[in-house]
Write a structure and sequence with these properties.
Largest sheet: 9 strands, mixed
Radius of gyration: 19 Å
Helix content: 10-25%
Number of strands: 15
Strand content: 25-35%
Shape: globular
Distance between the termini: 23 Å
Number of helices: 8
Order of helices and strands: EEHEEHHEEHEHEEEEHEHEEEH
Length: 269
């Protein structure tokens, strides 16, 4: 269930710059009956990320076809597209004639309990913080060490952990974006200095006003989370997970969730 440059294999050249420097990008896709959910949104983020990194992006049709082939015959699959700058000599300097390497993997759909979406999840606060880097902010680049270290902080006592930046502002979960409900409107953290601009997050930002729900992208403090009417998490695979417990407080389910779940792609769990 792995393709490397279109060939079924599991080995990658040891000189690959993605391995040495995290020099690459990735997308995680939800695939149903061979059809990629929200493909145009993922493609837009991937192609824009390639442009920002100066990385040649493969043809859209090629990536879509390979992702669909990997998931053929399964009702649900998770496909990851990983693009690196390919192999090169030692050193940070970008090779003049480098070739983008594409690695696609297919995995089983995660076995998330239905209660996560129906009743909510427990969330903790991570001690590991996100460093500011406006150049890479928003991108789903291949260096996820901050998230790896944050995820090491707990075992099974919570389903997700929230991460702050160096100024103490709430940014995101280790694997998700976060929204709070305040005065029957949505607020979500600004990720222009750090964090990932998730595809599902962007769909909520774009579509919620059409449903009569205002959205604000802004700095968010821990106090604002504590004072919120409700909290929820989102990503491509979980759709929407309401938060039922965080930092000593129990949160109710938001009355906005059924409306938000009418947005295509948010009823996945």
């Amino acid at each position: 269930m792995i393709l490397v440059d279109g060939v079924a294999q599991s080995q990658v050249d040891a000189t690959d710059r993605g391995l040495h420097y995290g020099d690459g990008l990735f997308e995680t896709l939800a695939v149903f009956e061979g059809k990629i959910r929200c493909w145009e949104d993922h493609w837009k983020r991937l192609s824009e990320g390639c442009q920002q990194l100066g990385l040649h992006c493969p043809e859209q049709a090629l990536l879509e076809r390979e992702a669909s082939e990997l998931s053929e015959g399964a009702p649900r699959k998770v496909v990851k597209i990983l693009l690196t700058r390919g192999s090169g000599p030692r050193g940070y300097r970008i090779p003049e004639k480098g070739t983008t390497r594409r690695i696609l993997t297919a995995s089983d759909w995660p076995d998330y309990p239905p209660q996560h979406a129906q009743e909510g999840v427990r969330v903790r606060l991570c001690q590991t913080r996100l460093g500011h880097n406006p150049t890479l902010a928003g991108l789903k680049h291949c260096n996820r060490l901050e998230q790896v270290l944050a995820r090491q902080e707990w075992q099974d006592e919570a389903e997700e952990g929230l991460m702050l930046d160096m100024d103490g502002n709430v940014i995101e979960g280790t694997m998700s974006n976060v929204f709070l409900v305040s005065n029957d409107a949505l607020m979500t953290p600004d990720v222009s200095r750090c964090g990932v601009a998730g595809v599902t997050r962007q769909r909520i930002i774009d579509r919620s006003p059409e449903l009569g729900i205002p959205v604000e992208v802004t700095e968010i403090t821990l106090k604002q989370l504590h004072d919120a009417q409700a909290l929820f998490l989102c990503n491509t695979l979980i759709g929407l997970w309401p938060v039922r417990f965080f930092d000593g407080r129990n949160y109710p389910l938001s009355e906005l969730l059924p409306t938000l779940r009418t947005i295509d792609g948010l009823e996945l769990s």
